[in-house]
Automatic annotation (TrEMBL):
Coiled coil: none annotated. InterPro entries: P-loop_NTPase. Residues 245-302 are annotated as: Disordered. This is MinD-like ATPase involved in chromosome partitioning or flagellar assembly.
Length: 302
């Protein structure tokens, strides 16, 4: 299974949530995180990893053949043992590696897709901020599911209506997640025409650990896999793994609190349902009475 995570504006915490989603993917799957951000990778610097192997070495190896097992030769491990293919921090090198992967004859990312279709393997691609010219777009279009993260303020949401038709065409299985405070899910649903799957909870300590940041001595034993952010990522991962048809989304989590139990796992949009198409003539958050709430995720890193 190949899943892409992305944003279309700003830095709503795609990399941090991608790490959480990969770390909390339900067993017995073999998860792999791939940094496919055209603006350059962060994980090698955050966690003090080696400069190689990485996305550049994978792109070079992909030219010599598409054996899916090759991909594991270009992984490194995060401190918790999570397998990751890092991108170079330099944007030019990252873009060149992504362009090289996209230049093969299998729709661009044949080796990633082949690895993702191995039994028990799930590949999660952190594609960063994506636009129609992004070299990461072939990965997005080849994905089995797309997770779009966006902050919930008016300026972040205002540009989405015109982007939704294109985003819906990128994937047969798109999902929308809200990040941070701002408008309530009901307001977003009314204006965009699609219910967000949920809202990433406020968990600054969990986000700090997943971003490789030092934490205070009293929090040294803080385990992100059992934090609000980790639990929420596990809920989303479980829903993605099940690939269920649509039903009610998760309600907004309380500030800093745990997410709903697995009984509330939402069913995701079906392959025939686009993520959203805004009705013509509508304006995001322009209706009288629409106002932001103050719930959401304030501790996410990019």
């Amino acid at each position: 299974m190949l899943i892409s995570l992305l944003s279309v504006k700003g830095s709503p915490g795609v990399t941090t949530f991608a790490v959480a989603l990969t770390a909390r993917w339900p067993a017995p799957a073999r998860p792999l995180l791939v940094e496919a951000d055209p603006s350059g990778g962060d994980l090698a610097l955050r966690f003090g990893l080696s400069t190689t192997p990485n996305l550049v070495s994978l792109a070079a190896a992909a030219r010599r053949g598409g054996d899916p097992e090759v991909i594991w030769l270009h992984t490194q491990q995060l401190p918790d043992g999570l397998a990751v293919i890092t991108a170079p921090p330099d944007a030019n090198q990252a873009c060149a590696a992504l362009s090289a992967l996209a230049s093969d004859n299998d729709g661009g990312v044949g080796i990633l897709r082949a690895a993702a279709y191995q039994p028990g393997v799930v590949v999660i691609a952190d594609c960063g901020r994506v636009d129609p010219d992004s070299p990461a777009l072939p990965i997005v279009c080849a994905s089995d599911a797309l997770v779009l993260l966006t902050r919930a303020h008016a300026d972040d949401l205002a540009h989405l209506p015109r982007r939704m038709p294109a985003i819906g065409a990128w994937s047969a299985y798109p999902v929308l997640l809200l990040v941070g405070d701002g408008y309530a899910a009901a307001d977003v649903t009314r204006e965009l025409g699609v219910p967000p799957l949920g809202r990433v909870p406020d968990d600054p300590y969990g986000a700090a650990v997943l971003a490789g940041r030092p934490i205070t001595p009293r929090r040294r034993r803080y385990d992100p896999t059992h934090s609000a952010l980790g639990k929420y990522a596990h809920t989303i991962a479980t829903a993605l793994a099940l690939r269920q048809p649509p039903t009610q989304p998760l309600s907004d989590p309380p500030v800093g609190g745990p997410t709903a139990p697995h009984a509330s796992v939402p069913r995701l949009p079906s392959a025939s349902q686009p993520i959203a198409v805004m009705p013509s003539g509508s304006h995001v958050m322009s209706r009288p009475g629409s106002r932001p709430n103050d719930r959401g995720e304030g501790g996410q890193a990019s």
